[in-house]
Design goal:
Layout (H helix, E strand, L loop, with lengths): L2 H9 L6 E3 L2 E8 L2 E8 L3 E3 L1 H17 L5 E10 L3 H5 L2 H17 L4 E10 H5 L7 E4 L4 E3 L3 H8 L3 H8 L9 H7 L10 H10 L7 H8 L5 H10 L1
Parallel strand pairs: 3-5, 4-5, 5-6, 6-7, 6-8
Antiparallel strand pairs: 1-2, 2-3
Helix pairs in contact: 1-9, 2-4, 10-11
Length: 232
């Protein structure tokens, strides 16, 4: 979905969200409450400038508007694959972005993420997956790694991975598989504004991804292993 149509569906005309390059930022009004909105568009490749721009928007909210809820709009192809960014340690910049989201959560800000188009690899991990809860539109595309790349990294034949992906969501791309694994809490259909209101009103914001993965059958052992480690 185009970001302007998405924002219109969420807030109508009650927002100041603007685009600067591939970065979205601004505020929006929802049922008398002001939200900070930070995100990316056009399948943004997260380079050092993009990561710093998003981190700055979040830190500005922490400093100037304590407790203000933050909505992360996710559309990224992952980190930018350029020699310059690698030499400048893009991993540190992306980690800084993730730490800013974590700091916002620990400082009392509700952080809701919405994957509205594409979410890949590190760009997704340091934004959407760092939020209190991450949601998605049904047409969103989510994956960490394509099967050919996964085959090269794991040294497992691609045809074996393809067979595994038919029955195991961990090996398969697609938004429904991330719902099954618990990475995506809900899919937002129909009235997007009502979905956002419900997400902000949820009382329990503890990390439920492992439990959801077990309940939904996408990650059957994560919750159990976590409990065994905690009990050890």
């Amino acid at each position: 979905m185009n970001w302007k149509l998405l924002v219109q569906s969420l807030f109508g005309a009650q927002h100041t969200i603007q685009r600067n390059g591939d970065v979205l930022s601004g505020t929006a009004q929802l049922e008398g409450q002001t939200l900070a909105v930070v995100g990316t568009t056009d399948h943004a490749a997260i380079g050092i400038e993009t990561a710093l721009a998003q981190a700055k928007a979040i830190l500005d909210t922490l400093q100037n508007h304590p407790g203000r809820p933050i909505l992360l709009l996710v559309d990224t192809q992952g980190q930018r694959l350029r020699h310059r960014d690698e030499l400048l340690c893009i991993n540190r910049y992306m980690a800084h972005m993730g730490c800013c989201v974590d700091l916002a959560r620990r400082s009392g800000h509700r952080v809701i993420a919405l994957v509205y188009d594409q979410a890949l690899s590190g760009g997704f991990i340091t934004s959407g997956l760092m939020a209190d809860t991450c949601h998605a539109l049904p047409e969103a595309e989510i994956r960490v790694m394509r099967l050919p790349a996964m085959s090269r990294v794991t040294k497992i034949a691609e045809d074996v991975l393809e067979a595994l992906s038919l029955s195991n969501p961990v090996f398969a791309p697609g938004v429904e598989n991330y719902v099954a694994m618990g990475g995506i809490e809900t899919l937002w259909r129909g009235d997007l504004q009502a979905s956002l209101v419900a997400a902000l009103a949820a009382d329990d914001i503890t990390d439920q991804r492992a439990t959801l993965g077990a309940t939904r059958g996408g990650r059957k052992l994560s919750a159990e292993v976590t409990q065994r480690v905690l009990a050890a």
